[in-house]
Amino acid sequence: MVTMEAYESIEKMTSGDWYVATGAERERVAQQAAMYAHEFNQLGPTDPKRSAEIVKAWLSPESGQCTIKAPAIIEYGFNTTIAEHAFINFGVTILDIAPVTIGARSMLGPNCSLLTAGHPVDDWQMRSGGWENGSPISIGQDTWLGGNVTVVGGVSIGDRCVIGAGAVVTKDIPDDCIAVGNPARVIRKRDKSRYERTQLPEGAPLDAFGILPEGPKESEGPESSE
Question: Where would I find the Maltose/galactoside acetyltransferase domain in this sequence (predicted)?
Fold first, then answer.
């Protein structure tokens, strides 16, 4: 006879298999994350040092020094890895029953949602009976998600992408792509002939924050034709 205990562990939850969101250990971890969220959001901008301590305890140990603006909801935290210099604006929601990865220097606009959780679609009795599963989300380096972007489980967004405000990303987006809409679709690739750096005053540094990695400069000319 199958016991429910076999389907309610954190290991079962993060594996991508069907599981049930019960069990004492999962409840303990979820409650701890909820307490981090509560304190972090209550603090707002009043105590940056304590806020940074909460973020470090809340996220995966592999995370780097990043910025998250309150309010923020991260369901578990241990499953979310945010790399160095990433910037997460107000109102983010991350349901991380499966791993979520956000690359270095990437930016999420206000009210973005990263939702790894899934439920049965055709089998309504299984869905109403409490079963769910999760699929990972990966966002690459130097990528920008505009405000109110939703990314669903199982999606990978590449490096140097731009996702337009309000988009719902249901399929993978390759590197260097600009995508918009619901569902999001790629409308073009990055184009060096459109670089906004031509609008800067002469001598203005591209790396205003001093956070870009060392490496060869990009060549001039378009990345690709439209």
Answer: 10-62
